[in-house]
Structure formats: structure tokens, C-alpha cells
Amino acid sequence: MGAALLMAAQAVSAREWEWRNPLPQGADIQCLAGSEDDGLLGVVDHGGLLRSEDGTHWTVALNALDRSWQCNALTRGNGRWLMAVNAPGNDPHQVLMSDDAGRTWRAVGEPALLRDIVWHAGRFLAVGTSTAGNGTTVSHILESTTGEGEWTVHATLSGTLHGMAAGVDRFVIVGAGGAIYVSANKQRWLRALSGTTAHLRHVRFREGLFVAIGDNGTIVSSTDGLFWNAHAAGVDSDLQGLAAGPDGFAAVGDGGALLTSADGRSWRAQRSDSVRALRAVTAFGPEFIGAGAGGDLYRGAGDAWTPLRSQSGGARSGALHDLVGGPPGLVGVGADGLLLFSPDGVDWEMVETPIETALRGVTYGQGHFLAVGARGRVLLSPDGREWEAYSVPGRPELNGVAWRGGEFVAVGDNGAIARSRTGTQWERVADDLGGQDLIRVRAGAAGWVALARQGTILYSPDGEAWEPRALREGYEFVELVHAGARFLAVGRDDAASVLVESADGRLWEERSELEYLIVTLAPAGNGYLAAATAGPEQPPVWLQFDDLGEPSVYAGTASVHRLVASGGALFALGPHGAILQSGRFTPPAEPSASGEERLASSGGCAIGAPGAPDAILLLLLVGGLAYLGRLSCARAHRRRSSMV
Fold it and tell me: Is pTM beyond 0.70 here?
């Protein structure tokens, strides 16, 4: 399948996912650049693009690129955008170009692993690295009039060089170990006296002064590129980005570091209200725009800076662990007591709770939302906004909770299982389960099923007496869902995932084994959607299962660690309080007392009801244009042998 078709199809499917929290999006921003003609353009994790015409209002296009590239450099010149990218592990690498204001991109060459690109005097100049025949790293200084095809290599220098700047009559490049080189013609380069051994990442030129930044808050400047002076940054963070604007310089870095200077010599630390890394900064009109991890965006100049990202989680911006829908709306729970509420899945608000410990599971039943988490804490709310705290005896670490037939059941570490009819008073049961850590619990017509991380599935007809019903040795279970009157569990080892299924929670059969590492899975349409990777440190992919056989594979949208289907919509949860939504959420009706016909649980699906709306099915049908073929590495098979 050609790259152009793949990109077009992915763009169609990506529009079905919308960022709900934080806004405009919550993925890490890798590169950011601005121009008077096209506005601001940012590159986010997993092939997404962030755009703004005014620096205030932003839109995001997920999967806008043809794969999960890592952006190293982004610049605009000659009416076109040029982006230097590489895959994880630096290979392959590529130069991408856009002639339509950054909307569509095409590959135009791979001259080297480019680290920086600048537009100067009608030409693109770049510094890139490669590996020499003896295994050492060398850096190349390259030039192109168009950015396409062959690049002219002016010089090759030893070591790893990262940043480049063009002055009035000379050029400067900086890199590892405090290396700085200067040249008047781009062909002969002199090693400068930098006065530092810190790793230097970027260099910029403004009004006769070169400024370079790097690790440990290093800032140095020079008027001629040969002799450099060090300046106090006021921070010891590694600095990651540098920009020169009409009124001075701005630098950003780890730990939310944000620095400004009117002259490049005297620097002042600004308040960013973030502890995450800021990775890029660009000049935009008279101001600067800084961006970084978790989608953080800041706008300002001098001492006046304003955050541009709206996050319902506020200061509590850790990962979300679970989400559930009920008649009042949706509740999401996460790290450090993070609790979010939405009446419709679109607008989210942070809710204050009586605790600050992790919440890991949430369900709806008995007319109440109920959340569980660390130290046996339980939160109960009739509307998702007002919460009261309770505890399970023994204060176990709780990981999941479900409701059925007028009873809540919560599970946790060391085999902890507790049940309650009210959510306020709890009874511990089944404490002799071998100390296994239980991570999920679901309920069906025939009873309860609990999932142990160590590879065991437990069954109970009444929530009190439990027994092991399935064991997958060597695999760690990661997910359990109930939909369409069937249970499905997902286990994985270091190289593969296995799917096991049961109609009643008693008898289990292995349905598929495949060489993808599934992170999470949820019902979608008439099948299932899973977030996965092809291996450690690999970019995310979506796996669509129609019959639990061979899945279809699509480029991943973001770092997703939990999928939940609820109220006809599918929600993807991620780091930094991220929530993505596909389909329209309709608050479910109050579940019946028997729990046999409709079930609101953290699995997100009602028994006998579809797991997701037609919109999700349409997403994947349209995404068939991007179909990557059946898994050549999948060893999908249907073993009808029961695992009792």
C-alpha cells in the first residue's frame, strides 16, 4: 500500500478520535515553528500535527503523518515546510516536505539523520549525523536550494553536532562535549573555545550575537563564534529549546524551565507552573510560544507568560486509570486522587475529593458512582461531583470494582476481594488465593470473574466463594472485559499476547495468539479494539478484531494505556490526564437491580448491548483504506481446548 494512500486513510480514521482532555491535546510536542504566512505548526507524538493561526486557538490532526516519526527539526522556507524525522532507534530517517501550509507531507530524501535545519539566504542549511566505517559518529554540514533530492555535503566533522545558526558573515554549529565550530564558507571549520564541556543542543543568532544552550542550564554567547562567554541561567535544568525574536531570546528545558533575555547575556527565569519538560520554543510576532511534554503550551515575552493548554486535571495531571458512564454522566479516576467528571464526554471538570491517593477503578450501581484505590480507600457519589470516603477492612491496595445484582465487588493486591451492598460497609472474602494481585473484576449472568496479573482467572457464582478456573503459565494478564454475554481476557509475555474467552466464566478457551504486545482492549462495534505495540520501545498501533482471529492493524493514535466503552462511545485514556473520545456518548439508563440485562461496570458495556456506536465501526471500515494486510507474524489459531 502506497504511503500517500496510507496517509490519506489514516487521516480519515484519525478524525474519528477527538481530544477531550487536556485541550487542545495532551501528547508530547516534539517540534514547534512559526511563520507569518502559515501561522504555528507543531509536531506531536505518534504522527500528530498541531496548528494555530493566532497562537491562541489550536487544532490537532491525529495521525497526520504516515507513521510515528520522531521530529528533530522543523523550519519553513521558500513557501514550504521542511521536517527532519527518524524512527525509534534513529533508523530509518527521512526528510518530509509540505507545500500546502503543513496539511499534507511527502518524503523527499534521506541525506543523513538531520539534527537541525535553518533557512538562510534562499537555501536550506542542515547539520546531520551518520556512522562512519569504523563505527564512530560523524557530523555533516549540508545544503539544498529546494530541500528535495540530493543535498550538497560541504564538510564532515567528527563527533555528534546538534544545532546550527547563520550569522551575517559566518556560520556556527554546536554539539556534544561543548563542541563549537565556526566557518565563513561552510567548507572549512575551526574549533572554537567554548569554555564548557556540557552537551550543547541549539544555537541562534540575533543582532550580532550567537547564543548557545545546553545541559545543566549552560548558556554561552559569542560575537565572532570563536570565543565564548558563559552566563548564569538561574536554573540547572537541561535546556532543550532556544529561539531568537524581535525583542530578545527565549530558552526552555526540563522541569518546566522557561528563561528569557533581552540581550542574550542577562537571563531571567520565568514561572511556567509545570514540572514537565519543555522541548521547543519559537518566535511568533513579538512573542514566543513554548511547548513540551503532555501538550504543555505557553505564550509570552519578557516576564509575562500565559499557559495556553486547558487541563481539567489542574495540578493533578497524572495518568487516568479507569472511566465509567452512568445516568449522570462520566467519571474518570487516576493517580494522586485525580477525579474528573463530564455530563456528556465533551466537557470535563476536575472534582475535589477527600483523598489524594491513587484511584484505580470505578463503576456505577445502586444509583451511585463508586471508585476504589490505594490503601483500601473507597469513594461514593450519587452524581459524580460530591464524594464521600470509606475504607475496606485491612486497607488493601484495590485495583478494580464492578456491580451486579445489588452488590459491589472490589479486588486488589495479594488476593484481596471485598463486597458491599451499600458501598459504605465492606466485608473481606476469599483471602486464601495465594497472594496473587487481582487487577480486574467483571460480572455476567452466571457470576463474577476476577483477573490475576500472574496468569490466573478466578470465578465466583456469588462474589463470596472463589476458585481458579483458567491458568496461562508464563503470561501476565493485562485486561478483562465483558460484552455480548461473553468474557474476554488478554495476557502477554515479552514477545506475544494471547486472548482467552468464556461464555460463563467457568470454561475458558484460547482464541488467538499473536506477536503484538496488547496494552488494553475494549468492545468496539461487533468486535474488539486493542491498543498495542510491536515490541518494547515501538510506536503504538491499533488492532481491530472482528472474530478474535487475525486482526487488522492501523497506526496508533497516541500513548493509550486504557480503553473503555461506555454509553455508545469509546474512550482512550493516557498520560497527563489524556482522554480521547470516538463516537457520541449517551448516558445509560439506570441498571436493573438484577444486573442480568444491563450492567454498568468499569468494563464499560451493558450485557446484550453493542460495545460501541456505528461511528466506531465506520472508523475502522473507512480505515480499511489503510489496511496493512493481515498480520504476517500472527499465529492466530482457534484452540477449542478448555483450560480448567
Answer: yes
